[in-house]
Amino acid sequence: PKSGAFFRNRFCFLINTDTGPNICLSQVGDYNNFSDMEFGEATAECAITVPVINNEFNEGKWIYAKDVLFVGTGASEFFIDVMTSSQALAQDNVKIVQISNVGSKGIMPVSIGSHVFFVDRYGLSLRDLMYDYYNDGYVESDISILGKHLFKSRIVAMRYQEVFDKILWCLTGDGSLVAMTFSAEHEVAAFSRHDFSGEVESLAVVPDFSECRDVLWLVVKRIIDFKTVRSVEKMEAGMPINLIESMKASQSIQQKDEIEKNYVRLNSMYLDGAVEFERKVDDMSEEILGLEHLEGRIVKVFVDGGQENDQLVIGGKISINKNWARVLVGLPICSQFIPQSIFIPTEGNSGIGQRQRINHILLVLYMSGGGKVGPDENNLREIYYRECNAVMNNATELFSGYKEVLFNGATNVLERGASVMIENSSAYPMNLLAIVPYIDVN
Asked: Are 167 and 181 contacting, i.e. CB atoms less than 8 angstroms apart?
């Protein structure tokens, strides 16, 4: 058997034969019985064998059960269903219909709502199988059409994280992850690439009831002192999402906002390969151990909601102050966002081909404390959050609201349009809700 599934109270498996793939469905409720006769008579409960026939060479890759039984082969995609909906699935009431000629890779599909996502035969794109009411059948579409460049190293595995952001994680051949945030009801399908300080070799999504979310677990491979070191790590939520115990119903909205903002600042996690240290009562430790996977690397140190000086990991440890309560140690994560070039239409002109420059930008932020903005990677300007009247020796409070930033967006005669780059490599969160550019047109 190449793949298996349960469909309409039958156990089904896919096998490849010399004449092509076959789908074998067990007797109803008797999952080990694949006899097509019962006391010498074929009944509606007997086992069913459905050959997968196509005009190209077919090798079965997977089967996946939803309201119909989807079948993926190296050359095409099919579905198995009843011919007459008023009768049960049986030997004389079964059909197989071809959906597309894309061809599938041997990776199990992932279901998100009524959508079934599978990987094409080359591993270069993500395809969507869904029911089309106009044609009264199933159709295939390329959901990754706007993110083809993200899959150049090919998809090798997929896992789905339902809670809380509805993310389909795709592991690619170069050890990075491509995330697709998908919500059909809100018409959202957004792709992002996630690089690590090592290579991700495998991934799994496991429910965590203490954190009230699905947790993505990873096996990450790093080369340290010419030796291969593997570690099991989990993807944190970044911003904590659990309810705050100190928040009471009797408090005002402003008090609750301050408590939540302070809680997020103290407990946020935005470092790669990080190790967390929480000091217990009477603990006078001045070192953090367990950093062998970061040996020889310069790490960021996030202490009680503020960022301290970087340190070099030697002997799998770093030194800390005995007064520090919560310490997060890890490598910086460089997050970058570049929207498409911005064109402002003018009277009688679309704006395309004109020289345009951005003189300043208004950023709409939520609980943010880091980030830079500029026209390109070599010309980034720090976003400052500390107020001039803020209390010294205290960590900067997280900011929510509108932040106006001066922008050196002058263009030369060869440039057309205006470009923006936003980057955050600090240990502070940066949640960008909107970008409002102010553009001069020449």
From this structure: yes
- Cα–Cα distance, 318 to 229 (Å, whole number): 19
Share of the chain above pLDDT 70, in %: 93
Question: If DSSP codes are grouped into helix, strand and coil, which group holds residue 418?
Answer: strand
Q: What pLDDT shows up at residue 151?
A: 95
Burial of 306 (0-12, 13-18, 19+ CB in 10 A): middle
Q: Which of 158, 411, 197 is nearest to 296 (CA)?
A: 197
DSSP letter assigned to residue 396 = P
The set of residues, in sequence order, having a beta carbon less than 8 Å from that of 332 and lying 6+ positions away, is 271, 272, 300, 425, 426, 427
Closest CA to 140 of 126, 152, 128, 122: 128
Q: What's the pLDDT score for residue 82?
A: 94
CA distances from 93 to 24, 83, 283 (A): 15, 5, 71
At a CB cut-off of 8 Å and minimum separation 6, what does 436 contact? 361, 362, 363, 364
Residue type, 45: E
Q: Which amino acid is at 327?
A: V
Task: Inform me whether the pLDDT recorded for 401 exceeds 60.
Answer: yes
The reported pLDDT for the residue numbered 409 is: 61
Structure tokens at 258: 């301050």
Cβ count near 142 (within 10 Å): 13
Contact partners, residue 18, CB within 8 Å, separation at least 6? none
Average pLDDT rounded to a whole number, residues 78-88 = 93
How would residue 410 be classed by pLDDT, with cut points 50, 70 and 90? Answer: low
* 234-246 per-residue burial string, b: 16 or more CB within 10 A, e: under 16: ebbbebbeeeeee
Tokens representing 216? 């993505």
Cis status of the peptide bond prior to 164, with omega within 30 of 0: yes
Query: Tens digits of per-residue pLDDT, 171-228?
Result: 999 999 999 999 999 989 999 999 998 999 999 999 998 888 999 999 999 998 888 9
The average pLDDT across 405-416 equals 62
Element (H, E) at 267: helix 253-267
- Taking CA atoms, 235 is separated from 62, 206, 265, 360, 368, in Å, by 29, 11, 18, 35, 20
Kindly report the pTM of this predicted structure. 0.87
What tokens were used for 183?
Answer: 């919500």
In the prediction, which pLDDT does 124 show? 96
Inter-CA distances, 129 with 61, 181, 281, Å:
16, 17, 55
Q: Report residue 340 as tokens.
A: 């498409």
